[in-house]
Amino acid sequence: MASNVNPTVRRRRLGQELRRLRELKGMTAEEVAERLLVSQSKISRLENGRRSISQRDVRDLCGVYEVEDHRIVESLMQMAKDSRQQGWWHSFGDIPYSVYIGLETDAASLRVYDPLVVPGLLQTRSYAEALITGALPEAAPGDIDKRVQVRLRRQERISDQETPLRLWAVLDEAALRRAVGNEQVMIEQLEHLTEMSQVPHVTVQVIPFTMGAHPGVSGQYAILEFPDAADSSVVYIEGVTSDLYLEKANDVQKYSVMYEHLRAQALNADQSREFIANVAKDYAR
Questions:
Q1: Which residues on neighbouring strands pair with residue 223, listed in sequence order?
Q2: Biggest CA-to-CA distance, the chain
Q3: Which of 17, 39, 177 is nearest to 83 (CA)?
Q4: By C-alpha distance, which of 102, 62, 61, 54 is closest to 78?
Q5: In this predicted structure, what is the pLDDT of residue 180?
Q6: What is the pLDDT of residue 3?
Q7: What is the C-alpha to C-alpha distance for residues 148 and 141, in angstroms, rounded to an integer?
Q8: pLDDT of residue 227
Q9: 188 CA to centre of own chain
Q10: In whole angstroms, what separates CA 132 from the centre of its chain?
Q11: How open is the CA angle 116-105-127, to the nearest 5 degrees?
Q12: Which residues of the chain are under the pLDDT cut of 50?
């Protein structure tokens, strides 16, 4: 298969197909686990694409589901093989949010709300370095540099000539006022944010403090949508020790509606650019 196959997305598609076969058979994950003498959590992780799927796993599951069409079995086996390939991010070693990077790499659009900091895809190098250093006070310099390099590499999705990522970012005013690094770092970051907001497929909106309470006070989240209709949208919520991925249609719908309220209450794109420019002037004084 082509080397550009995204292993994260392959695992996810394969997991969805395995779940479909299980449901067609009318079996629960617990019943399948008992048949294969494995834990129920393993079946769940295989179906949600959070762990690698071996060809043996696929063969065993197809046996339980009594899949008789050898073409289907072979196709699923090939998907399992593809899912074990490494994405570009694996060259950087162990990245805690590698699953998210895999999804982001294949996404067609990303809607993100951040109440505290500028989103990673819109950060400058100096801002990213200062932010990661402050967020991870015990991290070694080499680890910080690795994280910065990964962040900058992720930004290439925005400038991709063939399939650029459609990015919509809503920021709370606090993300602009929080002084990450020194004044010069913030001025450069806000100028970069203004520049990026003028890219045709990038929209930046700001919710000022004067708006008061709004639907985003519960915290940061992102909604990823994919070009293939077979890939359901995902809501991503970053955590300290683990991340949360919501894929149920009802959950995604609730977060999507909340995002529409955020966009409606935020300043429009032109007003937001002016607002960001004024905050930059405050740092320059």
A1: 111, 235
A2: 73
A3: 17
A4: 54
A5: 96
A6: 38
A7: 11
A8: 86
A9: 25
A10: 18
A11: 35
A12: 1-4
Q: How far apart are CA 148 and CA 169, in angstroms?
A: 20
Q: What is the DSSP letter of 87?
A: P
**pLDDT for res 275:** 97
Alpha-helical (H) ranges within the chain are 7-25, 29-36, 40-48, 55-64, 70-83, 98-106, 125-135, 141-154, 156-159, 173-177, 183-196, 249-265, 269-284
Measured N-to-C along each axis, helices 183-196 and 269-284 cross at an angle, to the nearest 10 degrees, of 160
**For residues 237-249, b (16+ Cβ closer than 10 Å) or e, as one string?**
eeeeeeeebbeee
Q: Measured between alpha carbons, how far is 26 from 245 in angstroms, rounded to an integer?
A: 25
Token pair for 74: 């072979």
Residue count (the chain): 285
Q: How is residue 221 written in tokens?
A: 């989240």
Give the pair of three-digit tokens for residue 178.
Answer: 């929080």
Which single residue is written with the structure tokens 């944010």?
A: 193
Tokens 């002084």 belong to residue:
179
Beta-carbon contacts of 38 under 8 Å, excluding residues fewer than 6 positions away, are none
Query: What CA–CA distance (Å, rounded) separates 229 from 27?
Result: 26
The token duo for 6 is 């995204």
What is the C-alpha to C-alpha distance for residues 110 and 129, in angstroms, rounded to an integer?
23
d(CA 250, CA 246) in angstroms, rounded, equals 9
Question: With the CA atoms of 21, 25, 27 and 28 taken in that order, what torsion angle do they form, in degrees rounded to the nearest 10?
Answer: 30
* Domains of the chain listed by start with CATH number: 9-83 (1.10.260.40), 89-284 (3.30.870)
Residue 68, amino acid: E
Q: What is the pLDDT of residue 78?
A: 83
**Tokens for 155?**
């930004």
Reading the block at residue 23, the tokens are 């449901």
pTM, entire model: 0.78
Query: What tokens does 211 get?
Result: 């708006």
